[in-house]
Recover the amino acids of this structure.
């Protein structure tokens, strides 16, 4: 399991909470996010933009 900074973990927690409440929207399409993996990816992406210590994106297979 990858190690993330406390700031990144907090950001992922916030996005998961938003997803559970039904408030998390996906990028430009503004569709509601229902997949937990997608919510985690959004949280890590936002943390990366804020400068938190997050490993680089992995390539999808």
């Amino acid at each position: 399991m990858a190690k993330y900074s406390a700031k990144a973990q907090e950001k992922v927690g916030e996005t998961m909470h938003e997803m559970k409440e039904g408030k998390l929207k996906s990028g430009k399409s503004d569709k509601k996010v229902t997949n937990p993996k997608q919510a985690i990816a959004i949280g890590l992406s936002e943390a990366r933009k804020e400068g938190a210590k997050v490993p680089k994106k992995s390539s999808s297979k």
Remarks:
- The chain has a mean pLDDT of 87.
- The chain has two helices and two strands.
- The beta strands are 25-26, 31-32.
